[in-house]
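Let's practice the habit of predicting before peeking. Look at the sequence and jot down your guess about where helices and strands might fall. Then scroll down.
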Amino acid sequence: MAESIKRLIKELNQGKNLEENLERYINQLSNLYYQDGVIRSVLDYYTLYEQTMEEGEMAGFLSEIKPVLQKGILAISDWAQLKQNGIGVLKEIQAKRSEMIKRVDILSTYVDQLKVYEYVLNRMELKFVAEETKDTEGLSEQLLKYIFSVEDNMVINERIKEVIGQLPVRMTKSRYYDIVRNSLSIYTGCDIDAVEDYLYRFKNSALLYVPEGQESYFQTWGDEIKGLQQTDFANLDGNAYEENICKVRKLAGDLVACIDLHISCQEILNSLAAVMEAGALIQDKEEWKEEIHTKEILLELFQLFEEGDGKTISEAGEKRMVFLEGHMEQGYDQIFQMEGILYDLKITSGKTELETLDKIGKLLSSSVFVDFEKKPAEGTADRDYIQQKSNRLIEELELKFGKNKQVVNRAIMANTLSVMPVFFNSTDEISQYILSSLEQCKDISEKNVSIQILNDLMAEG
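Done guessing? Here is the structure:
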């Protein structure tokens, strides 16, 4: 097959027998995507089954999504049924995918909010312990050495942001706003979509983003975070501190576990959707010896899910799983070759089938929560656009800061500084920022915790 794929790609690149070869290309890549998607469905389905055996407290969520997953698994376990009912089931899967994107957006927002309150509480950790101020001599030089000990500029920039995000924030709001404006000005002349993506990340870090549907999901966790928003952190005693830090850590663990489970479910939904989309495109289905194994495993797992008593998969099922993994790796090379010309073919031919193939490729990619309903913003961000966005963002920050205590505002500043583009022009500026942040911090607990975290960063790096 590898040689025939190479010949097909060569002829398409040369424009030979274009119409006939396009049909062959669509059918061939559809078959490859179909096989890849079926195997992924098996592996993802198995992973989810193992995961759900340990996630008893997520039973409510699983009961919601289980009917759609089971319907999809039954549909792809039989080719005739897939061709007959696949499109109808696909609509249900697409609807559930969209819901999952909303749910994870809310969960991710809660995680970002918790980072701010965890930052505040972490800086108080040593407040209730008698301790001398840690020595800062030579720390700036050590941090610079850590930052520039690698040659990759992307890693250097990430380390700079990592360090800045852990230092005590001791800058005026006007200085902070200047940095915010400058961070946006970098995007002048870029696509508006890139600006919107940056604003989304910034607003999440600044507790400004309100996700769609927040009132419909995870009400209990939302109420717990509202409770943290109303906490007077500056006046906590030792017992209140312990109560709040335990609450934050428990909530963070629950949120991460829930996100992990959502990722596992979305991966199956993506694989199922890819199989159904590819199956609809296939005109001449290729036989593959592994298909019988996929059907047997899918039906066994389907039954285990239905019974719900925590039984393990059979020994025969385990052996079939191992057998499938080799075929999956084999298919990657062929898919990679064919995807190499997909974009150009899509642009030049205008065939809708090629658009669908592009969509299937994204479903099978690592971008688990790719949103096909979201239309990218069009146009270029000129100076007026950036100015307007900057002004609006500063207004939102002013309102947010006006409602918060100083310790929370400093945490928001630190959180957002770590997502902004690097704003230093030289190593001297970085060194001076580190020194002034530590020198101006008069809170012994906050300074000591920051130094401790920074030392841990250097030790891990």
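How did you do? The CA atoms of residues 365 and 437 lie 42 Å apart.
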